[in-house]
Amino acid sequence: MIPSFGLENKVVLVTGGSRGIGAAIVSLLLDLGSKVAYTYRSHDDSQIGTMAIPADVTNAAAMAVVTQQVEEKLGPIYGIVANAGITRDNFFPKLTPADWDAVVDTNLKGVYNTLIPIIPKMYKRRSGSVVCMSSISGERGNIGQTNYAASKAAIIGFTKSLAQEAARYEVRVNAIAPGFIKTDMLNPVPEKVKQQILSEIPLSRFGKPEEVAWSIAFLLSPIASSYITGSVLRVNGGHYT
Ligand SMILES: NC(=O)c1ccc[n+]([C@@H]2O[C@H](COP(=O)([O-])OP(=O)(O)OC[C@H]3O[C@@H](n4cnc5c(N)ncnc54)[C@H](O)[C@@H]3O)[C@@H](O)[C@H]2O)c1
User: How many Å lie between the centroid of ligand 1 and the Cα of residue 87?
Assistant: First the structure.
């Protein structure tokens, strides 16, 4: 039997839940008995029992409507997984303003847009758990990812600051920093580079989306992680410690 982590009947919103890590967390939360809503930008692989909402995290007005729709249909939001993210990799001299803006708008401003309509409600209810998606690239940097690494490093500062503000309202805020996980995001990485990365990972393999999902469920849990806030949980096979 799968432990429920105290997440049964809890309403959780996952951004970018249509594929990859987001889809794995949606699927796990459903197994744990949560009421799950997720947003997506361009894919609709809706899963049974979920509320799938097309909404771009870069659109502040759309994200405010998402909060309203989810709370009307499922009830007060307990958990948020700010997962939606993109890469636009290039060496810095070749990085266009559009590549910079797209990544920062999605990965950083998108988290602001997601959380700003919900956090005041959580404060009032004195209940909530937020998980923001960072990355190993934000912790140790990565060639070709100045824009992405900057956005993911910023998420760590954001998480630690919001955690300190939110603690007095009994709302917890944590971040996940995955290493290299087998999703569509890894597709553009050349095979030679993948082999190089693999040689640096002590567990000698890429991570699975489900392995990140379990760590997110742990951080969402009002039982398993009730004394954890402002932390960054690394799920990276020992790649960076
Ligand atoms: N895969 C990895 O190796 C890895 C490593 C570290 C961190 N991450 C982070 O994990 C998160 C999920 O990555 P993934 O590998 O599952 O990627 P993915 O490309 O498979 O999925 C990304 C999801 O985000 C959604 N999305 C993208 N832009 C959006 C927008 N503007 N509005 C709404 N939704 C949007 C997509 O629709 C999709 O559902 C991202 O934040 C990513 O940066 C991934």
Answer: 8
